[in-house]
Design a protein that fits this description.
With 106 residues, this protein is α+β, with helices and mostly antiparallel strands. The protein has a single domain (4-104), classed as Alpha-Beta Plaits (2-Layer Sandwich), CATH 3.30.70. The protein contains three helices and four strands, in the order βαββαβα. The protein has helices spanning 14-26, 66-76, 94-104; strands spanning 4-11, 32-45, 48-62, 85-88. Strands 2-3-1-4 form a four-stranded antiparallel sheet. Helix 1 (14-26) packs antiparallel against helix 2. The radius of gyration is 14 Å and the shape is elongated.
Length: 106
């Protein structure tokens, strides 16, 4: 088990996703962000079944940076209730784990 996490964030557009990705990496809140365009989401919003084309971010960071990362995403995001979900990285290549630490200043 590590203190590293992957944070899932959905965005309404490629532009928004790239802005968030660039900001959190530049500010050392994340080591890397994968931007995955072309996802289709289905969910209930305001009591209605909703479909949306979205862009998914996979953000690699540390648990210690999660609160700061979350605050920054909320400030940049257009959704009133953005998806910000952290999942623990249990196992990973040790040099990759060290690289995450180096990038976020752990």
């Amino acid at each position: 088990m590590t203190d590293k996490i992957i944070v899932f964030v959905t965005c309404e557009s490629k532009e928004q996703a790239e802005t968030i990705a660039q900001t959190v990496v530049s500010e050392r809140l994340a080591a890397c962000v994968n931007v995955l365009p072309g996802i289709r989401s289905c969910y209930i919003w305001e009591r209605k079944l909703t479909w949306a084309d979205e862009v998914l971010l996979l953000i690699k960071t540390t648990r210690g940076r999660f609160d700061q990362l979350q605050d920054r995403i909320k400030a940049l995001h257009s959704y009133s209730l953005p998806e910000i979900v952290g999942v623990t990285i249990d196992d990973a290549f040790d040099k990759y784990i060290a690289w995450i630490d180096m990038c976020v200043g752990a």
